[in-house]
Amino acid sequence: MKKRTSILMSILLIFTMLLMVGCSDNSEVISGEEGNNEFQANIVFDGSSTLAPVVSNIGNMFIEEYQTWDKVDAAFPAEEINIFVSSGGSGAGIRSVIEGTSDFGMAAREASQEEKDQIEAYQDFLIGIDALTIAVNPQNPIHQIKESISTEEIRKIFSGEYKYWNEVDERLPEEEIVVVIRDIGGGAHKVFQQNVMGDMDVKADAIQSPSMGALVTRIIENKNTIGYASYGGVNSNEGKLIALKVDGIEATAENIINGSYKISRPLIMVKKGELTPQEEALIDYFFSDAATNIVEELGFVPVK
Whole-model pTM? Predict the structure, then answer.
């Protein structure tokens, strides 16, 4: 009897440890239980804070529709579907695939060649397109005076050459410009640096935000703030911030797709090696009409 009790306690301890590993502080556990060694009931995503809400929403919808894997495919066991989504930036997402700590890395930028070289049998899946808008607070009169801003003006603002708004345009007040950017590990930083700043550096005292949501909040809270807000973030906060045209081109779905709006970026999921059958079923779902609608509802440009 004691031996049996000891075995049961050991099993419970192992199960508890597995739950603790799966449910880290920065992860959202959408649903389900741990899978067994023969079938991977859990699918783990890590990376871009821009892409995380898209994956979470589609993952929730997938789970609500099927509940267990056998309802996805009769060949699968009756294991509860379990999807983990963590957001730590595009760089962290790609690194998680390199290190084998996630099944998919979410990235709001292209993977570099160096990153691809570290991922055996690299592949990625494009599920949408985003753009970085040059956004300001609605109380900032710049959008009434200048509905478009040039690339050169953006460089001077973000590099710190322009320190006050009246240096951008003399009709603007002599108030300090507050520049907000994503943190260095975010995909937005690399996209903005490559497509706008070039060999110029963003000023050292720019406010770094840990997520795109935090960046958008900064702009909403301070009328003197300017930042490169996600196209999806602007769409989901209509009226709370204003996106300026860049070199006369507005950030619209059409302009993003045809490439005329130049500060755009892909929303991809990075994978090492071949998909398992259950991963393939989930990826197929990401390209369903229902999932595409979610991409669009969250303010991004869907891709099928």
Answer: 0.79
